[in-house]
């Protein structure tokens, strides 16, 4: 490796942290070490011939940048320590639960001239990228429906489905539409606990159209998909399978005109690999991450969802 090769550390080696480990191990960087509270992770570090630290702060002097893959309620403290140590950070979404804490971390990264990138995986999903390109040609958007649902593993204990699942869908909408909602109405359901919602139905009002979001830990199907209904064309995207279909249909009171369904060719990719490659490039080139400022807005939106559900009424952004 060249003397300028980026030295990387990973903080948090749970299920998703192991995916970060796998990807970094295959890219042009030097994976220096990992940190986790679980002592069993030391064996994983040994297998990769890298350093293991129980205390993540002991890893920081040896690296240029880190992936932070710890539970969301630990993000604020860990990311702040990493930025204060002068390290570039890729942190899994959402950045924090609190808009003020998110603002503080974003400002701290700016002040220190560091990259703070939030891992919204679907921005690198080939179907999302193609959806963003195609949406400009569907006429006026009439409405949107989207789902992030499954029941294949036990629910998280650090947050409910709004911050866990809806955060992905709201980021996809921001990215694809290049606009933000003006009002929000949210209804949460609590079957497992009073503290964390396990199902949520969210209506985002953009003024000209609405987007309806369903997120759930209870649905028997595993789906991450979206319909964008336009006046000239309807688009369906399956983000999990990276499938995209277009339905050229125009409807008036006088007639309905429909052309055959179109299967859009997608060059499927591994979004996490593309996300981490983009992070490494940003660090190497000193580029500004395109979504760190937007992350503050996303957390404000998620916070507004919870406020709407608590108040039982629509709230403005």
Description:
The structure is a single chain. This protein is an alpha/beta fold and 317 residues long. It has 2 domains: 7-119, NAD(P)-binding Rossmann-like Domain (Rossmann fold); 123-271 and 301-316, Dihydrodipicolinate Reductase, domain 2 (2-Layer Sandwich). It has 8 helices and 17 strands. The strands form 3 sheets. The protein has a 9-stranded mixed beta sheet with strand order 16-13-12-11-7-10-9-8-17. Strands 3-2-1-4-5-6 form a 6-stranded parallel beta sheet, sandwiched between helices. α4 (99-112) packs antiparallel against α8, α5 packs across α6 (161-177) and α6 (161-177) packs across α8 (292-311). The chain is globular, with a radius of gyration of 21 Å. The N and C termini lie far apart (49 Å). The relative contact order is 0.15. The mean pLDDT is 94.
């Amino acid at each position: 490796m060249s003397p300028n090769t980026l030295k990387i550390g990973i903080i948090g080696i749970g299920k998703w942290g192991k995916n970060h480990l796998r990807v970094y191990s295959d890219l042009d960087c030097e994976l220096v070490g990992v940190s986790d509270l679980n002592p069993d992770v030391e064996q994983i570090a040994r297998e990769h011939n890298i350093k293991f630290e129980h205390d993540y702060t002991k890893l920081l002097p040896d690296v240029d940048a880190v992936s932070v893959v710890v539970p969301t309620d630990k993000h604020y403290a860990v990311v702040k320590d990493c930025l204060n140590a002068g390290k570039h950070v890729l942190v899994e979404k959402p950045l924090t639960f609190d808009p003020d804490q998110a603002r503080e971390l974003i400002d701290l990264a700016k002040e220190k001239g560091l990259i703070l990138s939030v891992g919204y995986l679907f921005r690198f999903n080939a179907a999302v990228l193609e959806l963003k390109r195609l949406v400009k040609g569907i006429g006026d958007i009439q409405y949107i429906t989207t789902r992030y649902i499954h029941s294949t593993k036990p629910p998280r204990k650090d947050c409910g489905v709004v911050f866990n699942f809806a955060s992905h869908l709201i980021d996809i909408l921001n990215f694809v539409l290049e606009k933000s909602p003006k009002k929000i109405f949210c209804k949460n359901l609590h079957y497992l606990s009073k503290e964390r919602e396990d199902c949520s139905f969210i209506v985002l009002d953009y003024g000209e159209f609405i987007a309806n979001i369903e997120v759930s830990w209870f649905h028997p199907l595993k789906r991450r998909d979206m319909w964008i209904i336009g006046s000239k064309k309807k688009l369906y995207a399956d983000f999990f399978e990276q499938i995209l279909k277009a339905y050229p249909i125009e409807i008036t009171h006088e007639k309905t005109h429909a052309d055959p369904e179109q299967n859009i060719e997608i060059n499927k990719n591994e979004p996490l690999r593309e996300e981490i490659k983009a992070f490494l490039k940003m660090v190497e080139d000193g580029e500004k991450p395109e979504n760190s400022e937007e992350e503050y807005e996303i957390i404000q939106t998620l916070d507004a969802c919870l406020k709407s559900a608590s108040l039982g009424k629509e709230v403005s952004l």
